[in-house]
């Protein structure tokens, strides 16, 4: 069916608005943390995969880091393994770690690879243990890591990133494939660790000197007192919003991850609404975007 003149004009407008962004970002790296509703809603899954394939097609270098908390919780429930959380972090004993590795490194990771492939993209799925990508260590409480939590709390095999080795990512990207990374790392003794996916995405963005770090979430972005989405923020403005409690609760870890990335040289960080179809493309290729943009510009 042919487009009406009005629709054709709108398509042309969208393409011309996207053109300068495509020209500006060709050859640049974008690290995208994929999670939330975008991972469980079928239409959103496919729109995300198409976004990533289009980015690669126009010369950008997308890197996907994914979560999978609901999927892990579902399998643990089926196996009658109890889930316990401390400040939003899953207590991960040996049995739970086996499930985490099965779900993140197997089921979820390969589903994302398959989605990209369905839309004529090329992707390779890995965990942080492949090629020694993520060197990790146990996350300790009662220290600089988490001073607010008593040192007697033990989360088991929950880890933090010590080092990112980029060789395996460079091989994948140089072969024109899209890396899809599960946030599992290991220490020098071979112990496996479950690591927060936002944190892994931020650390990878830093070492790859990414143009953008994009965190998909289940809210519209950082919201002000009037519930309007705030964007075009610099680090000083974000810190002020944290100080006056405008930013609080579950948004804080994402904001801290974004601030850390831009402070380390990532050009911008974006917290975007993963419930919107084609959210990634809308954020990158349009003037308005669909979330909160944070930079280090003063």
Describe the structure.
With 298 residues, the chain is of the alpha/beta class. The chain contains 9 helices and 14 strands. The chain has helices at 5-25, 42-57, 69-78, 94-118, 167-174, 197-207, 235-243, 251-263, 279-285, and strands spanning 29-34, 61-66, 85-86, 89-90, 123-127, 134-138, 159-164, 178-182, 184-186, 192-194, 212-217, 233-234, 268-273, 291-295. The protein has an 8-stranded mixed β-sheet, sandwiched between helices. The protein has a two-stranded antiparallel sheet with strand order 3-4. Helix 2 (42-57) links the parallel strand 1 and strand 2 (61-66).
The major β-sheet equals: 8 strands, mixed
Which sequence of SSEs, written as H and E, runs from N to C?
Answer: HEHEHEEHEEEHEEEHEEHHEHE
Low-pLDDT ranges = none
Q: Helix content range of the residues, please?
A: 40-55%
- Strand-pairing-aware structural class: alpha/beta
Number of alpha- plus pi-helical segments: 9
| Morphology call | globular
Mean pLDDT, all residues:
91
* Oligomer class: single chain
* Number of strand elements: 14
Distance between the termini: 49 Å
Proportion of beta-strand residues:
15-25%
- Give the spatial strand order of the biggest sheet: 5-8-2-1-11-13-14-12
Radius of gyration, taken over Cα atoms and rounded to an integer in Å: 19 Å
Task: Indicate the topology.
Elements: H1 5-25, E1 29-34, H2 42-57, E2 61-66, H3 69-78, E3 85-86, E4 89-90, H4 94-118, E5 123-127, E6 134-138, E7 159-164, H5 167-174, E8 178-182, E9 184-186, E10 192-194, H6 197-207, E11 212-217, E12 233-234, H7 235-243, H8 251-263, E13 268-273, H9 279-285, E14 291-295
Parallel strand pairs: 1-2, 1-11, 2-8, 5-8, 11-13, 12-14
Antiparallel strand pairs: 3-4, 6-7, 9-10, 13-14
């Amino acid at each position: 069916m042919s487009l009406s003149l009005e629709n054709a004009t709108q398509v042309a407008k969208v393409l011309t608005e996207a053109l300068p962004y495509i020209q500006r970002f060709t050859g640049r790296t974008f690290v995208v943390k994929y999670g939330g509703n975008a991972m469980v809603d079928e239409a959103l899954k496919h729109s995300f995969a198409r976004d990533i394939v289009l980015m690669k097609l126009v010369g950008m270098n997308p890197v996907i880091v994914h979560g999978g908390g609901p999927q892990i919780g579902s399998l643990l429930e089926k196996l009658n393994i109890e889930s316990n959380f401390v400040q939003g972090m899953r207590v991960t004993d040996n049995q739970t770690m086996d499930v985490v590795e099965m779900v993140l490194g197997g089921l979820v990771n390969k589903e994302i690879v398959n989605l990209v492939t369905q839309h004529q993209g090329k992707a390779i799925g890995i965990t942080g243990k492949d090629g020694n990508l993520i060197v990790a260590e146990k996350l300790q409480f009662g220290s600089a890591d988490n001073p607010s939590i008593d040192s007697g709390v033990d989360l088991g095999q929950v880890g933090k990133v010590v080092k990112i080795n980029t060789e395996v990512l460079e091989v994948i990207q140089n072969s024109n494939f899209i890396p899809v990374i599960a946030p599992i790392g290991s220490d020098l003794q071979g112990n496996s660790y479950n690591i927060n996916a936002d944190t892994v995405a931020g650390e990878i963005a830093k070492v790859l000197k990414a143009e953008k770090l994009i965190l998909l979430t289940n809210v519209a972005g950082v919201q002000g007192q009037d519930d309007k989405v705030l964007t075009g923020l610099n680090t000083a403005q974000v810190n002020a919003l944290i100080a006056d409690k405008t930013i609080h609760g579950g948004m804080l870890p994402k904001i801290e991850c974004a601030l850390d990335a831009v402070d380390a040289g990532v050009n911008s960080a974006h917290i975007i609404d993963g419930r919107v179809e084609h959210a990634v493309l809308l954020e990158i290729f349009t003037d308005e975007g669909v979330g909160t943009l944070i930079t280090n510009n003063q």
